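Thread: Modeling a multi-component assembly for a lab meeting

Hi all, long-time lurker, first post. My supervisor asked me to bring a structural picture of a complex we are working on to next week's group meeting, and I have zero experience with this. I have the sequence lines for every component (447 residues in total). Could someone generate the structure of the whole assembly? Inputs are pasted exactly as I received them:
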Amino acid sequence: MLPHIVEIALPLGWLIGSARSTLRSAPASTRLLYALLLAAAAFFGLDYIVSGNWANLNDVMEWSLGWAARDVTRLLQSAADQ
Amino acid sequence: MPNDRIGPTQAAVLLLAFTLGSSVMFIPSPALAAAGTLTWLSVLVSGSVGLGLLGCVLYLHRRHRGRSLVAYYREVFGRWLAAPLLLWLMLVLVLMIANIVVGMGNFFTSTMMVDTPLFYLHAPVLLAAACTARAGIEVAARLFMLFLNVIVLMIIVILAVNLPNYQPQLLLPQYAPSTLPVLHGAYVLYGFPYSEVFVFGLLLEHVRLRQRVAVGRALVGALLSNIVLFAGIVLCAGMTFGPLSGQRSYVLYELARMIELTGTVERIESIAGIVLIAGSYIKATIAFIALHRCMARFFQLKQSRALILPLSLAILFISLTMFKSGTKAQEYWTSLWPMITSTCVLPLLAAAVLSAFRRPPARSG
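Re: Modeling a multi-component assembly
Sure thing. I ran the full set together rather than chain by chain. Output:
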């Protein structure tokens, strides 16, 4: 777990540390999005540390489109098998 | 914004680099598994669909006089319907970049660098792609000219040096040919790379307005070159491995392993690794540029380039948590990914149809 924490803390810390100079003359909307992206990175990074798999975007895709993909693939495969 | 105008040749380089990219390593194998020795037909079918989609992208670009995709989506669909469509498009681009680096990581951990943690394979490629995207599309296009030459040259070398291994009789079908396996192969190839041409809807705003006609010819030429290269790879794989070619995980890598010019050139599979790293880097960069443009236009941001690094960090951790196993990833790319990209292709087609029935916008744009 320790290597994972270092892998996340280093880039995240660097981006947070450099945010002030990077965004010195940026408008509020850019600053807000920057903060949101860092929060997203921290969220997915936490999932990476604990291997919780509760932030898996593929599950969203699987839930929304998986049924169609499976049916199309099955149709093409089963007909080919015959 | 500096460095954000490209010419037709540079746009063609980007398209060929994007469609060859990492897909040249991953996709021939599942397509061969689905369609067998008739995969070259699948390439032609899905390539034709890709050409149609490219025509649609070019039509929208001309019809809306070089305006951004975000601007004409808002005009065609209205602000409220365009918003979820564009947010979904951004999510798909995030997943696309994550999938590109996952594919590269899976390849190396299953072939050459089995003990290396994925983080140390994903992070450098994503960082390089993010830095190139920050430098701008013109810098990227100039740089990729060099990389594209290297990739195409290496593919041609791998295919040419394997000449003594080819047995054309292996291409003959073992059973009566059927349409559905060809369609299955075409479905796989449609998802990755031909449907991903929609990304160029976001990039064509960077093409110099005076060269709009020439860019159409250049892009069609680039996609045709891709189709020829893909068809060549699957034909060569079929002539080398026969009906078993679909069981090889990475066909180009396996072809490189077969090379044996006694005493001089043997087992040059690391070349396939170079092709894959360069291809993944190029494809991730182009997707990054498209995602960045979409975000900047959608949220009407100034100084939006500052967002690329935090975005790449979020994508890095998404890529590390996406798949539990390589098998799951392979299934995702060949089954689910064509559906996911279709959700971005369909609005583009709808925008083209709706635009055709509307008066062209005023010349001010």
